[in-house]
Amino acid sequence: NQIFSKSCIEPFNEVFILSNCLGIESELKEMHEININDHEEQALLRSALMKKILVKIIIKNKTLSDTNKTAKLIQNIKDYIYKNSDKKLTNRSVANHFGYHPYYLNNLFSSYENITLHNYINKIRIITAKEKLSLTDKPISVISCEMGFADCSYFSAFFRKATGTTPKEYRNLCK
After folding, report:
1. Could you tell me the pLDDT band of residue 9, with boundaries at 50, 70 and 90?
2. Is the pLDDT of residue 29 over 80?
3. What is the pLDDT of residue 83?
4. Which terminal residue of the chain, N or C, has fewer Cβ atoms less than 10 Å from its own Cβ?
5. What's the first-to-final CA gap in the chain, in angstroms?
6. CA 19, CA 122: separation in Å to the nearest integer?
């Protein structure tokens, strides 16, 4: 924290504190080192430096705000995919639900989660399928349909590729 008073920055008439001064250290040092006999020029220089500091703080806060919004969007996407993993989800359907273009949303998701949206959807589908296989006695063909697969054999191949076991083998391992 850095404390400023009226004597330090002439145009301001209250004492205030700047928190988290990262990135503005040079301006703060320069402001403290201003020592000009002409008080008007000194006030102008300090005022200009303070404007520069405030712009940096605003930009930093906007960046943090944008990051928080992105984190919230990504979490909402993940929640939506998990809640709707029993539906036929695609990049396009998820993007449409959130009002974004599929390529933009995939790039945003990938950069934030280090996994493509498509692969994340498939990951959640496998997790949900595992839960259904281990916790229910539903036939594999029914689970396949519930997971959005039109063909049970495709579901089995997809499941085996992802887990190394077939759905039937997985169910038997869980018993």
Report:
1. very low
2. no
3. 92
4. C
5. 59
6. 44
- CA dist., res. 146 & res. 25, Å (int): 58
Joined tokens for residue 42:
């000194």
Check whether 71 has a pLDDT greater than 50.
Answer: yes
pTM above 0.90, yes or no: no
Token digits of residue 71: 């984190």
| Three-state secondary structure readout of the chain | CEEECCCCCCCCCCCEEECCCCCCHHHHHHHHHCCCCCHHHHHHHHHHHHHHHHHHHHHHHHHHHHHHHHHHHHHHHHHHHHHCCCCCCCHHHHHHHHCCCHHHHHHHHHHHHCCCHHHHHHHHHHHHHHHHHHHCCCCHHHHHHHCCCCCHHHHHHHHHHHHCCCHHHHHHHHC
Mean per-residue pLDDT, 142-166: 90
